[in-house]
């Protein structure tokens, strides 16, 4: 493993790092970074979302694997009909992301936006793509592109990956978090 990949590992959220370190080889040499049993080591909030299944699971970037869910997992987590019918390996998903980055994105800022959207929707795939293509993507995921993204933040903002909070001076912050936010309007 290169020192660049090691440096990226230090920036990973602990739960993702643990999953990546506990990978096992699946068919075709694709690493299964979401192996069975890993859910038992997750934080209670993440475990609760996994238990709910369905749409909440697809909106959670830690749990969402898109078309990488097997037919059995789709039944178990009530995802049938919520995803395209094809089951795809992480490798195939990675190849598609890299094809989009290389062919569809004309600028580093467009590549940054694609990676940011991927991180907001599927962290497993995001970190897999970033770690396997770190030399190519480091200038996009870090400096200098991040500086340009900060300057253009108002134009490229899509979803924070967290609960939106529009705080106004004089309004108690605690009251904001008492308001329920349905999954459909989070982003």
TrEMBL record:
Pfam family, any one: malic
Domain called Malic enzyme N-terminal: residue spans: 120-158
Gene Ontology BP annotations: malate metabolic process
Matching InterPro entries: Aminoacid_DH-like_N_sf (IPR046346), Malic_N_dom (IPR012301)
GO molecular function (one): oxidoreductase activity, acting on the CH-OH group of donors, NAD or NADP as acceptor
Protein name: Malic enzyme N-terminal domain-containing protein
Organism, scientific name: Apatococcus fuscideae
């Amino acid at each position: 493993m290169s020192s660049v990949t090691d440096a990226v590992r230090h920036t990973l959220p602990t739960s993702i790092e643990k999953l990546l370190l506990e990978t096992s080889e699946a068919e075709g040499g694709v690493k299964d970074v979401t192996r069975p049993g890993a859910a038992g080591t997750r934080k209670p909030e993440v475990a609760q979302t996994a238990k709910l299944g369905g749409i909440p699971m697809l909106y959670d970037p830690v749990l969402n694997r898109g078309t990488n869910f097997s037919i059995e997992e789709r039944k178990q987590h009530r995802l049938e009909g919520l995803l395209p019918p094809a089951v795809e390996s992480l490798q195939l998903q990675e190849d598609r992301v890299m094809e989009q980055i290389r062919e569809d994105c004309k600028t580093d800022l467009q590549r940054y936006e694609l990676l940011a959207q991927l991180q907001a929707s599927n962290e497993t795939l995001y970190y897999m793509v970033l770690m396997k293509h770190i030399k190519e993507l480091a200038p996009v995921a870090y400096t200098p592109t991040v500086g340009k993204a900060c300057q253009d933040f108002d134009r490229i903002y899509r979803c924070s990956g967290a609960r939106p909070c529009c705080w106004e001076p004089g309004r108690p912050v605690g009251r904001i978090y008492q308001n329920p936010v349905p999954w459909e309007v989070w982003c």
